[in-house]
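Fold it.
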Amino acid sequence: MKTGWFLPVLVLVQGLCAMFFVSDIALTVLGLRSRPISWQTRELLEIGAALGLVLGVVLGWIAYRRSQQRVRAVEESLRLMQSAFKDHLEERFCAWGLTPAERDVALFSLKGLSLSEIAELRQTSDGTVKAQSNAIYRKAGVSGRTQLLSLFIEDLMSDDG
């Protein structure tokens, strides 16, 4: 259900109601009212403005609750996608027969870390990480980091889930 008009209308109604009360007070304090309005008309205007403000609070709360529900749904969807992607990575890594060290290197590599950053994190030499990276590329059937990453991007974009 599309409600793009809802919040602007809500703000407009509340603004008009608030403007009525503020202008009424300002006109009374400054003595700028040219002729007094009848008390019946004044009461009706105040009742209408008060109802508008109360309605604005109620509708504002409803809009807030709906937005919170949407946020929770999106967060849950993201959590499920992250879990599914992590499972997919593990499946691929198992299918390729990566060792635990190679899995770490592959994951860091997919995250965009350089060979020296990976070596520093894993407390190994750059040469070790380079050798592990080459083993990963060979087992995955790719020639480098870019192609490794593209395998996972293709999986995310494929229609066969």
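The helical segments are 6-30, 39-96, 100-110, 115-122, 126-140, 145-157.
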